[in-house]
Amino acid sequence: MTDNSTLDFYNRHADAYIKQTRQVDMHALYDAFVRQLPTDIKMPQHILDVACGSGRDSFWFSNKLAMNVTAIDGSLELIKRNQDYYSISNIDWRYLKFEDIKHQGWQNQFTGIWACASLLHVPFNELPNMIVSLLDTLVPGGTMYASFKYGDSERWDGDRFFCDMNENRFIEVLQQINLNNLVYETWITADQQGGRDIDWFNMLLRKR
To answer: CA 27: distance to chain centroid?
Structure first.
């Protein structure tokens, strides 16, 4: 799913990427996501952090909210740094690429999926199948959050591939997914890093 050039970028620039993103305040998005997690279940909350990057969000869910967290990333260098930096956490860090998720036997295992600024590296025509694979890992009532840079194209920014998203493109994706068991909402937010003129397209998909 994610091309080697993009993954190579994160491996080469792991330290700089972590420095840039680890302290970004994401509390408003955490709150929107957590409010939609199922509460009428007998299992503990278990979050799958897809392309966990700097580990910032995984640590918040695990340390602050006492949730079980499985954090995956296709960049081995990012996983290694997270294992070292967050060594006292109970997070299950795994070096895993997008296309390998469907082979993990994770059906109906997670109450929530956090895919913050990660699926934006998946080509548009592959997104429906990728999202279906992720939704299959959710329990009934489970919720998936994902975010993309706002736009209507696929493009390269240096060595990284990006798939942008807007309302029309989101509908195109939904038309290839079984909507009978989904409730969804979308909204736009400004960039949280500061100094960048970027809007983000956010989505929540809840599995009935």
So the answer is: 15
131-153 exposure pattern, b = at least 16 Cβ within 10 A, e = fewer = bebbbebbbeebbbbbbbbbbee
Beta-carbon count within 10 A of 83 CB:
15
Alpha-carbon Rg for the chain, nearest whole angstrom, is 16
Say whether pLDDT at 195 is over 70. Answer: no
Report CA-CA distances (Å) from 45 to 102, 111, 173, 187. 21, 6, 27, 24
Q: Do 115 and 131 form a contact (C-beta atoms < 8 A)?
A: no
Q: Under 8 Å CB-to-CB from 47, ≥6 apart: which residues? A: 58, 61, 67, 68, 69, 70, 110, 111, 112, 113, 114
The answer to whether the beta carbons of residues 91 and 66 sit under 8 Å apart is no
Residue 88 structure tokens:
């006292």
What pLDDT digit, counting tens, does each position of 18-77 carry? 999 999 999 999 999 999 999 988 899 999 999 999 999 999 999 999 999 999 999 999
